[in-house]
Each structure stands twice: as C-alpha cells, then as structure tokens.
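3.2 Worked example (two chains)
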Amino acid sequence: MKRIAILTFAAMATMAFSGCDSSKDTSTTKQAPVVMGEGKPLPPQDSSYELSFDIGGFSGDTALLAVRFGSSNRLRDTALVQNGKFVFKGDTALKGGMYMVVLPPENNFFELIIDRDQHFSVKSNMQDLIGNVKVEGSEENELMYRDIALLASMRPKVDSLRKLMEGVPESSSRNKELREQLANIDSTVVRHRRNISQEYGNWLYGKFLATMLEPTIPDSITEQEAQFFWYKKHYFDNVDLTDDRLLRTVALDQKVMTYLDNLTFKDPDSINASINLILNKAEENDEVFKYFVPTILNKYVESKMMGYDGVYVNVVENYYLTGKAWWADSATLAKMEERALALSPNLIGRPAPDFTTTNLSGKKVNLYSMPGEWTILYFWDYDCSHCKTVTPELARVYDKFKDKDVSLFTVSINGTVDIWKERIKDYHFTAGVHTADPSRASGFDAMYDLRSTPRVFVLDKNKIIRYKQITMEQLEDILNHELGLSEE
C-alpha cells in the first residue's frame, strides 16, 4: 500500500523522522481508518490544576506555561522557580490541549498533554530536557513520552541510513535497499501510532496521532491522478473536526491548511468546495467553528489572486449572513454584507453587468453589443498615474488581437470628454470601442466595484466574466491561450 507524503507535523523535535521515504508501506495488512470513539475509557476530569516540576540544572527564576491555539501560541500561566522547582496551579481546570513548559531566558521547552489529568508531577534535567522527562500521575503523558522514547531510539538507525545514502546513485540497487530500510522503519512508526490511536481513541494523544496519520492508498489504485483524488477524498478520515482539544495542538490547523494549500485547486469554485467541506464538519463544535470561519476568511480576503473575492463572498453569504457566525456583532455583519453585495455582481463565472455609455462619435453603445469570442472591458482614468502606464500597454496588446475575434470596450470614468479624446489619440489605439461616462450616470462603478483604476475584465462570447485583476502581460498570455495561438 502507498502513502502520499504530503503532510509533516513537527510537534516535537523527536516525534517524526522527516526525510524517510514513506511512499510505500511494506506491510501486507491493509490499514483501515482509525475508528474514533473506541478504546480505553477516559480518566475522570479534574476540576482544577496543579502541575509540579523539578528540572535539574535549571537556574532561571521564571517558568511559563503556554498552549498552542490554531497557528499561534498563547501564554496561560507563569510560576516562580526556586532551585529548578516550580508549580503551575489554578482553581479552574485548563482546557484540554498540548501545552508547552517554557524555560527562559533560552526558552527551552517540552510539551505535555493537559486534559483530564491536571494534577501530576514532572521531573527532568537540562542535559536532555525532553529525553529525561518522567511523569507521575498522568497516564496520558506517560503514554506520550513512551512514544517519544521509542522514536528517539530509532533515530540513530535512521541517521545512519541517511549517512550511508550520501553519494550513492539514486538508481542503484544499494540506494533502493537503503530506502527500503528507511521505509520499513517509517512503517513501524505508522503501525505503532495507529495502534495507539485505536487503543486510546478518545484520549487527546490518540486523536492527535490519528490526525497526523496519512491516508494509505490501496495498491489497486496505480494511476497517479486517481491516487491523488483518492488521497484527497480520504484525507479527513481520521480527523475529528468536532473536538476543540485538537485546536490546542499543532495538528488541526496545519491539517486543514495543508488541505487548502496542497490538495485544493486554486480556482474559486474548488476553494469554496473545500471550505464548505471543512466548515460543515467543524460546525458541530462551536469553538472549532468559531476559529476556522474567520481564519479561513482572513486567509483569502487579502489575497491578490484572481477570483479570490468569490471566496470572500461565499464565506460571508453562507456563514455570516445566515446567522451561523453567532459571535459577529451587527456592525461587523452590516459591513460584510455591504462588501459582499458590492463584489457579488462581478465575480468570475457570473454574467458581466450590462451598461450603456457614449463613444467617440457621441453615440450610445452598450457592452453587450460587442461581437467576438472574447471582449476586453477596461475602466480607466486619464489622470491616474498607473493608468498612464497601463493604457498604452493595452493599446499595444490589443493591436495584436484586433483581427482575431476579440473586442475591446474601454470606459473613461473621470475628467472631460475633450481631454479623454486627446488621450485616446495619444495612446495610438488603432481599434476598439472607446467610451466615456465621467458623470457615471450608467452606474458601472457600483456594478463593477470600481474603487480604483485601472480595472481589466475579460468576458467570453456570452459576456460571462472569465478573468479579472490581471496585468497586460497576463492578458496577452490569456488571449494566446484561449485562442490557441503560439506566444511570440
């Protein structure tokens, strides 16, 4: 069976053998998805916390307790240190998660699971802070550090194999032998962690490891594209997007962002489908949902990528304006609705709004009267400094395509008609329909959300918006591609 090595989690320095060839699992047993909700019963939930530490060789006077939340770290407690000993203590239990004990000023740290067990003690020393951790009173942390110790015991063998591979030709039988040995070690780790995930299915560490596991592609799927789509379909099989404890680990945010960045095509429809898949799963948990809705929105709202405004509209329309984003106040919702309404008419894939303006001869002409397979729609202001650079470039580009079933429809949005006519001559346009509406009586500015100029749209023969927010170089490439022409 094969596993696509796309996702690597570095929760701790000793927790993964990055660089192992994990493209093939040498085991012969088919690996089923981890079954959530099964395994060893959870311990009782503590109502307060008291965590005692004795760190030999630590001479600092302060220790910090921090927790991962999504993609950032948050401070949760501080403690005074005397002779390497300190206690974190509170009357209210901490939220379940993977916490970091940080030791300033060098900020050395080690991690602990703080979930249901919140009264336990830890000993270690500065000689090997992670390797020498001993936990008493927390079965889950004892489990985690046994796992860490197992991986640490394998590392010398991995490092040795990597060293042996240096200088060995990739196509040689020796290289293949060494890679197979690395793959065997990797498979051993995967089986070990899969077993923990099944035995401790409800425990946070079990779910953490399950989240890290990658889907294993059946041997029967051999075609690369089919492997990709199978992997993508089963990517979240072992991920519980309804467990907010996973937000307080490195796993969940990275898992989701990897899906969006590496497994989702970069067009708005594909991105929206992926977002809806994730948020529909997360919606069952208020804290997870509240984290991912604005996080995903902010991921795309500032993007300059073409068409990503459609992602913003999708999230706003489906999650904010429907009342699902219960944390958003009325003022925020009003601003989002206003922005979404402004963007909605000119999204890629939607019909371009039609309007009528006046051409150089003083005649009325409307956008939809433009013939051809493609129409370039260009809004500009002759006083705009950027327009002064882009407009002559547009004249140059269009001169190449004016006889190739491509129309040009320009709209001057400010100034006077006389100066506009002079500028059209100055820029040496040899073809195209050039119009002006400085009073904006036709309403195009609202239709096309013209908050700045220049703005370029490319419409197909049905006047559907296919491209926008593009440079002249991109425009030339797009037209060459769509018309099947070779680039000069």
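3.2.1 Second chain
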Amino acid sequence: MTVTVFSFLMSILWCSVFTLLSCVLFRRKRVLVFFSVYALLFLMMSSLLRLIVSIEPPFVHIIRSTKVFPAVMAWLASPFPGLPAGGQALTMGNILLILWAAGSMYALWRFIYRERRFHRLMSGEKPSDDPRLLLAMEKIAGDRAKNISVIKTPLTDTPMIAGIIRPAIYLPDLPLADKDLYHVLAHEWAHYIHKDLWCKLVVRILCVIYWWNPFIYLLRNNIDEALEIKSDLYVTKRMAEEEKLAYLETILLLARSFTANAPAPSPTGIGFLSQSPEHPLKQRFHCVLNRQPPGRLQRAANGLLLLAMLVLFAFSYVFVIQPANNFPVEYENGEVFNLTSVETFLVPNEDGTYSLYINNAFTATINDISKEPFSTMKIIRLEE
C-alpha cells in the first residue's frame, strides 16, 4: 500500500462525497427519526476516516485522465513569476504548499491559544460542594461520579463538558430545579462516557490541517449536532412521554437564559447549547418526541444502511484517477515538458539512461524511469 498525491486527492474527493451525503440525510427529519442517529454518525465518521487513510491498495484500478488532471499538473508545475528561490523559480504547487503550511500554523496557534485561554479562565474555579448537585451525580453515575469534577461558575451561560486529560462539567450559576439539574448532568455525563470529547478533538485537528476545505467545516457542524442528539436520545431512551417533555423544558429554560456573550468556550468542549444565536433545537425536539422502539423494519433498514455505507467506503478504494502519462515533468535544467502527445516513447542508451521522444523528436535524457510517468511509457529499441 502506498500514499501518493493522487490517493490524497481521492481522499479529499470521497470525504466531500460522504460529507454531502451525511448532510442531506441529517437535515431530513423523517430520515433522522427512521434511521438511527448512530448510523448517520457512522457515515460522518467514515468521512473523517477516508480523509485520514489516504492509501492506494494493491488492487486499485487506475483511471487515466487525459484532459483535467494533466492540465492541473501542468499548472502546478508552472513557475510563479517574480519569486526566485535558490536560483530556481518557485512553482505554483510550491506556493500552494507554502500557503497551506502557513494557514495550518495559524489555525494551530489559534486552536492552542483558545484552549489555553479557556483553561486559564477556569483555573480559579473549584469543584462544587452543593449537596443537590452531588446527589444528582451519584444518582446518574454511581461510584463513577468521582471520575469527573462538576464546577458551578458565572463564567459560562450554558452547561458544557471540557478537558481532554482532566474532563470537567461546567454549569452556569443559575437557580436550576432538581429535575433540571438532573437532566443537564445526565446529558453531559453521556458525552463523558461515550468519549465524545476525543471525537471532537480529532475533528478540530483535521480542521487545523485542512483549513482550506469548506467541507470539513460542514462535517464539523454536522458532527457537533449529531453528538448532541445522540446524548439527548441516550438520556431519554427509558423516559415516559411526560418525562421527555420535562427534559425538553429544561433545554428551553437554558435556551432562554443563553446569551452567547460568555467567554469563548474550549475548542474541544461540548456545550449543552450551540454558540450560534440560532440553536438547532427543532431537530433535537423532533428526535426526542418521535423516537419509537425500533421495529423489525427499522432494524433491517438500519442494517442495510450500514451495509451500504461499508460497501461505499470499500468502493472508494477501488479506483484512483491519475494523469494518462501526460502530466508535466521538470528536468534538471528546470525546463518543464508537458507530455500530451500519444507519440511519446523512450529509447534506451548505452550508458543506462533513456532518451525521451515527443512527436518523434528528441526532448530530454531521463536517468530514472522507475517512477511515473516513465515507468508505463513505451520503450523502443532502435536498430543499429
């Protein structure tokens, strides 16, 4: 298995396809209720995995592009005017890599700065000793409640969980009733036991690396909303109808007190409500109120959906698009040739090198033909 620039481009393409598919399905309430949110979350995770695992397996089928890819590669290899570097002109590809690296460094700095600022802000806050809060946590988590701190602070206006190494639940300084306190803590505890903070960390790291890709932000928002719905369904799965309504009333209560004017949260934290002024509450309410015990048809449909996702994920590795031996090649003298002609072949020389002919005319001397595009070129031995 190898990693090439073309397998990397295919991973970006398929990640975008999976993201668009998950977005279309996730935005349809009927689909979200009929199919399990876990199935849709699996599709979103497949997008991330496809982006990370950019490989070409041994069985890959290469599809040769004769127009688009050669034109793109020719543009990337073309020199950028007016920017000399070490006696050689920088190519457009070099410039793009520099911009990519600079953008990733800035995104990483911004990520670390926001994370450190949040923890500095909360460093003076102590775990709460409120007996009502401790009793609610014991009821929810039992002996495991001691594994996570619960902090009540005026520095946030929405409940959240934050901290990869030492996770803590942060509660706003609001007069919550016992039932509201239980609902909030149960929701945040669900995030903790499902390791959702680690999922969010992976997404944020990919946002740092692929900051230029708009689909990664769409995927990030979809996953954030899916994690909230997943926790809602986990908390309410054994609740009666009246208890579900009480849980949704808790969400509304906190939404009314939400101002989004509190200090910026941790980039890897998960808030009970979105930092956006328009909370995606309709989907959460719809999923909680319309969730039914899965019947035979629904279980079969979810199984088929998961199977289709696995097949599509495997299919994404079946082929890779590459230029049809006609992408540009830069030689030692810095000159770039675009191999666009079908009349392109190699002639072996006595010293072990090869002469490159384009349109039956000698063009250059090639020292190594073990790599593309030369490895698949026709070799013609001239008669003496």
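3.3 Remarks
Residues 94-284 form one domain.
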